[in-house]
Each structure stands twice: as C-alpha cells, then as structure tokens.
Amino acid sequence: MAYSSGEVRRRRNPKKPNPGRSYPSSPLSDAKPCRPENDHHYSDDNDNFRSSTGTSGTNCAPSEKEYDEYAWFVVFLMALSYFIVARGGHSSRGGVLSSFSKPYKVISSSVAIAKGNKENSEELLRSIFYADSSQQEESLMILTPNCRLEVILSSPPDINDNIYGEECKSNEGNNQKQNSIPFLSHLSSTTWVHDEELGRGYLLLADVGRSGRIWRWEVGGGPITIGRSLHMERSGCRSGMWVDSNKKGSNGTCPDNLFGDYFGTGKGKMSCFKSLTPTPSNQPLLGSASLAVELTRSAERSSVGNNIVVAEWGERRIVRVEGETGARTPLVTMVPYQSDDKTHGLQWRRVFRPNHLTYTPFGDLIFSDNLESEAIRQINNSTWNHLGVVYRRKEAVHVPPIPVDRSRDAHSWLSATNGQHEDGNIDILFETHGVIEGIALGVDFSTLFVLVATPANHSGGTKSVYKVQLSADEGDHNNGNGDKADNDDDGFTVFYETADSNCESPELYYLIGSKLAVDERGIIYLIACPTSVTLLDKEDGHVVGSLALDKLQKSGKYHSTTSSFTSIGFGEDGYLYITSPTELMRLKTRVGGMTLPTNLVVPPPLK
Q1: Which residues contact 63 (CB under 8 A, 6 or more apart)?
Q2: Residue 418, phi-psi category: left (phi > 0), alpha (psi -120 to 50), beta (remainder)
C-alpha cells in the first residue's frame, strides 16, 4: 500500500518482540522496506537506505525515522489554545478562564487634570495612564476599562470584636478556627522581586501590624492567578527583648499573629477588653515596616537578588535575610544623634522606628527613623512631639553575612557587628521636627526626595516634599524644620507643600507607610491626602494631576472600605501598586518605576 506525504503514518514499535510470544501480523509489520531498482546503496542488513529515485509507485513500509510533516501544526494549535486561555479574554485578571470569575472591584476610574497649564498636564497624564478617548469630561480624564484602580486583595480589618466588653464565646473550637484565619493587619509598603529561575517577578507586601508578616502576591504564567501566599511569618518581632512593656497594647513580648487577639493570649483564645476605637491602629505595630531587595553588583536588574532587607519594628533594627541560609544579618542597630551638650559631639542610640529602605546605585542604604515625644526625651530635653531623621549606611551591600547559629544571638547585639560603633559607616542626611512618610531617589541619583508630614496643630497640618542634594560624604546634616522658604545653603529645598485643609476627611490619615515614589521619567507620586495620589512635575514640583477614589452614586460618599492609602510603589509588571491597611490595589500604567543601575556598586574591599 502506498503512502502519500500528507498521510499520518504509524511508527514501528522500537521494542524488540518477545520470542516466546506470537504477535498478529499486520500489513505494516509484514511489509519490507522499499528497494528501488538499480540501487546499489541498499543493504538487507540495515533498515536505513539511500535512494536516488523516489518511492512513488513502490509498495513499501514507512521508515522508523520518518515523521509526520504536519506534526508542527498540531503543536502550534496546542500552543495557540493555551495562549488564548491564559492571556486572552477581557478580564483584568488575565485569561479566558478568569473572565468567568468575579471581576475586581474598581474604586477609581478617572484622573483629575490640574487646572494650570492644562494642555501640557493632559498630554503628560495620557503618556502615563491609559485614557479612554471615547469618554471625556471637563478637567477629568476617564481611564479605559481594565486599566483603572482596582482592589485585588482585601481582608477584614484587624480589630477586636468585643469593643463593648461582652463575654467571649465559650466555644473554643470556633474561636480557634476564627483566630487561625490569615489576615492583613496593617500593610505599610511593597517591593518588587524578580526571580531569574521563574523568569518572572512577584510583589512582596510588608505588614507592620502585630509581630509582622510578609506576604507574596504573584500572577503566574498560566490561566489562573496564583494570588497571595505567606512569604515570612513574624517578620518584625521574634525575641521580644526590645518590646516596651509600658507601651499601650504590649506586655513586653511579641504578640501572636492571630485575628482578633489583641494581646496575643494564645491560640484559640479571645481577649475580652474594651477597645478604644475599632480601627487598625489599636493593634500593636511591631512588624515589618519596609522592605528592599539588596542591590547585586552587575546583576541584570536591580530587583534581582536573593537577599531581602527588612526594617523590624519589634526588634528595632534593620536586617538582611540571607537567601541561602535564612540567617538575619544586622545592618543597622545603632544610629548617631546630636545631644544637648554639643561639646561631646555625636552620641549613639538604638534605632527606634526604621523605615523607607532605599538603595543607591553605589550600594549605600538610605533609611529613616521617626521618634515620638517619649523617645525624644530620652536623648535630649526638648519638647518636640516628633523627630524624623534620614540616615545613610555606607556600602551596606558589603556587610558580611552571619552564620545561622548566630542569628538568634544577634537579637541582643548593640551594634551590627556586635562590637564597637564605626562612626564612618552611618551619617545623617536630613532632620526634621515632623514625621517622615516617604523617601525616593531622583532619576539623576544625586537627589533625594523626602516627604514630611507636620501633624495638625492650632494652624493645621502640612505635607512637604523636600529635595535633598546628596554628596559622597555628608558633613553637617541638613535640618528641614519646616521652613517655608527654600534653603539651598543647607543642601535642600522645599519642592512642594500642601495643607491638610485641602484634603477631604483628613482625620482618616495614618502617619505610617511609604507614600512617595518616582517613575522612570522622574515624575513624583505622593499620597498627600488619605485617599488620593498627587502627581508632581520633576522640574519645579507643580501639580500635574491627581488620582482619587470614585464617589458612590447614591450616597455621594467615597468607598468606605478603603480607609486610607498607606503606600505607593511600582512593579515590573506594568502596574502601580497602592495599599491601605487591609487592601492591595493596582492601576495599569504606561510607565514603570525608576530603575537603578547595578554596575556602579562599589566593589568589595580587598582582604
């Protein structure tokens, strides 16, 4: 029987038949290979042969090494079907299968265009966001569907249910089941990590509530979103030796990460007490406030790295979690300060509330520390209610890792190396009598933007963005005490300023989080009001536009579940991520965040 090139042919079974067993004959098994006439290259001892003539019109069986010519088409159809299922559809979740799931809740569908220089502002905003050209309103740019601000992760607020002091339920089994449910207590920052082995990245979320957790949010390459998973438990408090027992909501130990258990009374037990107000701020904040990926010299991108840097509020230090061993290497435990008696020079103290971890292209680590009135009085006799300081840990990437067996003992270390302080390693870059809420490098890498909140007083609160000039070695630190005028002589200027009176519901504002970001073109994004994001031009700091929550049509009020934005940051997947204490939101953008070069990292010192 002759076979044409377009027919599907069966290959012979490569296994040798069993001699003791008989097999039914078939036309294919009985047929012999083709032997064209006058072909002297043919050998009966070998199934392979060469022929200068074709096999047309010859009764022969197919060769073992012949494959179907259309096999590639079958593979192509399978790949195309997978692509349609995984990437197609109109759902923002991605994929046709996701189109059948419940869509994410959209909470903001437009961007307000600044009134001044409207044409230039609108053009700039259209280059950042995906605008719907079919819908236009005065001073308002409508965003296209699937490119609006949507809530992709949400949790009930971490509050105690017994706010009126009722008796706890006696059903311990039900309480245990309720307490064991994972929750988001108080999200404070995000950072993007690129995994070279997976070939994609994921978002890490820092939770500063209770003893802290680090969550992982990722969208896989398949048709279904991977979603949330627990990346690290007790990310901010483990030993309890640095927990103040006199502080409200603390008994000198690390609280358990159990839903509704204020004092950490144990698994399966509810605490009965009167909560002051049913807000997330009632819970002790001893978790991880900020995250960063350690910069790796000559890496493909700055987000590639095995080591994660964590600001631990419960341990009052900054550590590097070693990716290979899991050990927590202290990077910062003590910081300098100027005492009242300036004749003694700089003194050293334990860091209080480290936050806003930011690497420079040279491998230095910039961070902030906010002190409250009680902590301030421990170092001087001032009557300030707040003190914010920006520090720089020089060449932090070269701090040697500690072994795993010393990781537990490192909780009690009074310095990063368990030895004497090295005065040249940490210097002061900026100081203010307000609360530092965000830090971001400029695109020139020599400028540092600092967001400072001055809490409300008799004249009202303000938000200011300072522009600090960085140098290789800082001598006298910059003092940004909220002066209204620019001060170039001190190395900083007031880049932008606004009053709390310009915000709606300013009482919902939390003084915790990372509320400043810079995109790849230098545009500044800041959370100046509880539920809005303001965009500033990189040249002179004028407002370009703002993103705010949509008002509910019937009530005229904003979405009540989103109480206040706590952080803002870019991912490498084309989204701008925003958090509230118990929500993760995202907005698709045309631009990404500012990236750091890795070839400028200072090489390690010679041994």
Answers
A1: 33, 47, 48
A2: left
